[in-house]
Task: structure prediction
Amino acid sequence: MIHLSPDGGAMSPPSPARPALPHPFSGPMLLTLQIAARRARLDELEAEMIVACEAAALSGRPQTSAASDRERWNRTTWHRYLAAAMRLEATYGPRMRRLHQEIGQLERLKTLLTTF
Result:
């Protein structure tokens, strides 16, 4: 079969259509990136809350190595830590729960996309 160009000349036949390659940041890859970003933000919030709780527990004492100090904390120090955690829950809790929920939704969506 001869194909004609718009000016009436002969053209080579069209090449068979190649399947389009997916964009590298579409579908599961994009979801993976979004999940990673939310997990990183969740880690940041958890770290901020822990630092604030430790600061309250140590009540102004200079923090050298809070993790190793925890083994030597007394009951009063732990009570201050837990009291700070309860106070800070109103600040950090809603954002952390929302991130957990979004991560779960994105993971379920990613699973659905990979099964098809």
About this structure: The two ends are 39 Å apart (CA to CA). The mean pLDDT is 85.
